[in-house]
Amino acid sequence: MVFAKPMRAVALASLFLLIFLIFELFHKPKLIKEPRVIYPDMKTDPNLEETHEPAGKLWRADDYAADNPNSPRINATILSLVRNEEIDGMVQSMRDLERTWNHKFNYPWTFFNDVPFTDEFKTRTRAETKAQCRYELIPKDHWAVPPWINNDLFHESAKILAEQDIQYGDLISYHQMCRWNSGLFYHHPALKDVRYYWRVEPKVHFFCDVDYDVFRYMQDHNKTYGFTINLYDAPQSIPTLWPETLKFIAAHPEYLKSDTMNARAWLEDKERRPEHNKKANGYSTCHFWSNFEIADMEFWRSKAYEDYFKHLDRAGGFFYERWGDAPVHSIALGLFEDASRIHWFRDIGYQHIPYFNCPNSPKCSGCRKGMFTDGEDFLYKEDCRPNWFKYVGMG
């Protein structure tokens, strides 16, 4: 039997309607979680309060054209360690940061890789910005496993990390990356004359218009390090990091800032997560999540930090455990730097899955104010900001 065209159209529409109704009946949409605060020692998330730009002198986007050789730009760069195959995620991150900030200030992008960048990577990244793009190869001796690391011991250690569900613990490239980010990137010849950097990784998001030069802010206000997210680490990944740190400061007490100036109490807290402190042998595991960091490389180049990194490097924990650059950077900053020189960029909306920094500001869109995660409830306990606010403040 042949149906007339109008009848066929009605039948087809009815079929689509039936499929839609069945989908709606059995599909359970993900609930949109409202921001929540579950800290007994923090009455409300500070990101629920109205957020403003930092106080003091700020440099606006005047005369910052990409082709202006006399612009107010200082010796700073946006920095990314990225693989060729991560090009889609890198372009997404660039679009967000260019849209919210860098199209106004045109700071250069510097990309690092342990293999040469492809033409496709260069073409697509250059298309996202008017600023200069630089493509750098990491020296082989910076990326290679150091000769004092025992390969058999590494593989045995990797098995233990895997049994403890430590993410990436069995990937040699991840250990190499953590070591490079901890103590080698700032020695790259391409950064020889660069002082400040903003680290950006693939697949991150930026949500807020930032209308001032963040590098100038760091310089003018004598800031060493800027962060957005502050977390606990997996203690099983760093059991000997704090004991090795104590050995180092026992040998070099001259590098320690006084306890009235440093953030040692934040590093050693055992009240909020005592099991973390116990498993990490005295370290709270609190750290700045370093996939976002705006920092002054003069701190990493200082004798205190260089000696500390060399001590850790020789101890082998970058390979026999999973020491990350985040806890290494954070411990050094907490002990060897004045805490007042560490800045929470509360006005910069940021996401690296699964965590957020979401300010309450009309300059922000795309994330809900005060949201820490859009993941499961258990992730809220990973937020270490309450400890930072308790021991240091919100500066």
List keywords for this structure.
alpha/beta, 3-stranded antiparallel β-sheet, 7-stranded mixed β-sheet, 15 helices, 395 residues, globular
Describe the structure.
The protein has 395 residues and is of the alpha/beta class. The chain contains 15 helices and twelve strands. The chain is globular and about 50 Å long. 38% of the residues are buried.
Strand content: 5-15%
- Average pLDDT: 92
The low-confidence runs, each spanning 5 or more residues with pLDDT under 50, are 23-34
User: What composes the largest sheet?
Assistant: 7 strands, mixed
Structural class: alpha/beta
SSE run: HEHEHEHHHEEHEEHHHEEHHHHEEEH
Helical run tally: 15
Radius of gyration: 24 Å
Q: Helicity, in percent?
A: 25-40%
Strand order of the largest sheet: 3-2-1-4-9-6-10
Number of E strands: 12
Task: Give a short summary of the structure.
By secondary structure, the protein is of the alpha/beta class. The protein is built from 15 helices and twelve strands. The strands form three sheets. The chain has a seven-stranded mixed β-sheet. Strands 5-11-12 form a three-stranded antiparallel β-sheet. Strands 7-8 form a two-stranded antiparallel ribbon.
List the helices and strands and how they pair.
Layout: H1 5-26, E1 76-81, H2 87-105, E2 109-113, H3 119-126, E3 133-137, H4 140-143, H5 151-163, H6 172-183, E4 196-199, E5 205-206, H7 214-220, E6 225-227, E7 230-232, H8 241-251, H9 264-268, H10 274-279, E8 286-288, E9 293-296, H11 297-300, H12 303-315, H13 317-320, H14 325-336, E10 342-344, E11 350-352, E12 355-357, H15 385-391
Parallel strand pairs: 1-2, 1-4, 2-3, 6-10
Antiparallel strand pairs: 4-9, 5-11, 6-9, 7-8, 11-12
